Amino acid sequence: MKKNNILFKSFLHKLGIITLILISIFNFSHGSSPVYANHSIGVYIDNKPLKMDVPPIIRSGRTLVPISAIGNALSCKITWNERNQSVIIRKQASIIRLSINSKLAYIDDNPMHLDYPPVIVNGRTMVPLSFVANALNYDIKWDPVRMNVYVHSDPVNMTMAEAKAADSSIKVLDITTLEMNIDGQIKKVQLANVVCANEDNKLLNTGGACILGSISNPKLDEIKELLASGNVSVKVTQNLDKDTVIAEVYIDGASLSQLLIELGYANSIKN
């Protein structure tokens, strides 16, 4: 009798383990839980955090966000059809049609395939952020280190806020050469159309970069203060190599090159 009890308890123990394994396999295969890192996902629209009452989720490598939140942030008109579980996103002449649990979407009546369909989570319609942003001609970037998504209305602009979020700071290498994060890569940036005013410095490539000679550090410190004083945007005009670009740099819309000319630190080389 005692032996039978031991065998029965052993059977129940094994049965419990098998049940737990089966439950785990079922949950994993059906994707019942969103995939999160150790911290939540951040979404920024033109460097302003997107306010959401339901946090973003990642499914099949795609970030999904509440349609109401992203729609309002991008100034879209959202129409929800309860009967067929579909949503229409309108902005100016653009129209996007999405349906819950369907990978078929439409942009201006053109059929498109989604990597992951819209879903409903906690009563909110969650849509693929990159698909919606790209369809409306917004620029979108993913920061895998901080788990942040950046959506920009102007794809050529990268502000200081984004540079800092990517764990990067702008370095002043010399009067007309910076080092900064552009699209997730550290680049040497030669200011376009200017050359150092100091005659002892040599012109490099076509961007007007100069080598430090007798230029004093206080001038470099002043440039650093200028860069830290406002939002920095960059417009790349030429790629010299994989690590170096020629670019126009702006601080709150003012040309850094022009500021350097006015300070007497640089001369214009425009034709």
TrEMBL record:
Coiled coil spans: none
Q: What species was this sequence derived from? A: Acetoanaerobium sticklandii (strain ATCC 12662 / DSM 519 / JCM 1433 / CCUG 9281 / NCIMB 10654 / HF) (Clostridium sticklandii)
Name the UniProt record assigns to this protein: Copper amine oxidase-like N-terminal domain-containing protein
Q: What residues does the Copper amine oxidase-like N-terminal domain cover?
A: 45-150
InterPro entries for this protein? Cu_amine_oxidase-like_N, Mao_N_sf, SNase_OB-fold_sf
